[in-house]
Write a structure and sequence with these properties.
Domain Cdc6 C-terminal: 261-335
GO molecular function: ATP binding; ATP hydrolysis activity
CATH superfamily of the largest domain: P-loop containing nucleotide triphosphate hydrolases
Bound molecules: adenosine-5'-diphosphate, magnesium ion
Strand content: 5-15%
Number of helices: 16
Shape: globular
CATH class of the largest domain: Alpha Beta
Largest sheet: 5 strands, parallel
Domain AAA+ ATPase: 34-171
Organism: Halovenus carboxidivorans
Order of helices and strands: HEHEHHEHHEHHEHHHHHHEHHEE
Keywords: ATP-binding, DNA replication, Nucleotide-binding
Length: 335
Amino acid sequence: MTVIEDETPLKQEYIPEEIVGKKQEEKFLSENLEHRNLHIHGPRGTGKTHLVRKALDESEARTCYISGLKHRTQYKALQEILSQLTRDEVSSGYHTSELQRKIEEHTEVMDIVVVLDELDFLLLNDGEDLLYFLSRLPNRPKITAITSNAENLQEQLEPRTYSSLQPRRIQFEPYTGEQIYEILADRASKSLAKKSVHRNAVTYIAPSTQNAEIALTWLKTAAKNTENAVTEELVKELRHNAFEAYTAGKLEHLSQHHELLYHAVEDLAEEDEAVNAGEVYQRYQSVASEEDVSVLSDRRISDFLKQLEKLGLINADYHYGGKKGKTREIQLNRL
Ligand SMILES: Nc1ncnc2c1ncn2[C@@H]1O[C@H](COP(=O)(O)OP(=O)(O)O)[C@@H](O)[C@H]1O
Ligand SMILES: [Mg+2]
């Protein structure tokens, strides 16, 4: 027995008809997405991806949606853009400039909207070149960049890139407890058996997080763990499991090394709240060799730590000076 009648509405990629709050943002997107370059910024779980995907579905233009979390370099993103334009797989044999030329050819014959979601991850690599290339195309495809970290693109980009992009910026604010409540109640009514969710359970989750994705994952975790009702007690009990499910969902897009690294921070954080990056490297190395995984260089690992930070899974504070020069103190984010 399960209380879940239809799992689809609880899935991360599900887009409901009714959007809670964010009416203005929805209107702004439907009016602007096809006509100008945009930069959407806001913390995780504020509905950025969700609203943009809905606007893309409703758009008449040819659209490409790229997630920088999945396609983290210019090359991979170009490949994916071309593949979406041609609706065909693109082999890895092309040179970057060939991919660029083929994409340019497509923009000559149709109006294109390109969404670069999770741009923060592309910017850790050579994403700037991608933005420059796209923004300089003669037929000006319309570019929408979405970030959770980079608040101000002008500070992040070289002047020549920023000035050819000139995005209109729109900020997504975190949801209030009431809005999270509404989002949860709506999904519960669509996916769970009647009367299987106690009101107290939802009022417990709603003020605990402003991230709609965490809230939905929590509800789903609870629903999966009961045969009769999602109660406040159950929800409280599963707080940790819910967050674990959320982080696992995020780490899924990255590599095994990210996972090992995250678990290294988790282990160390049990002993001490703030952990030094050096200790994390050591712990990662010993866990990796235990698991027979070839250990990556400190340089790569440092890049991966930055990615975990951009994902909002850890916080890193930089300290300058002292014996070791620059050090990083790492903290685990928790629910
Ligand atoms: N206004 C909303 N109404 C209903 N569901 C929402 C709303 N905003 C976000 N969600 C849901 O919350 C989750 C997180 O939203 P998402 O768009 O992925 O956030 P972001 O891209 O800002 O991190 C998704 O599963 C989405 O369906
Ligand atoms: Mg998103």
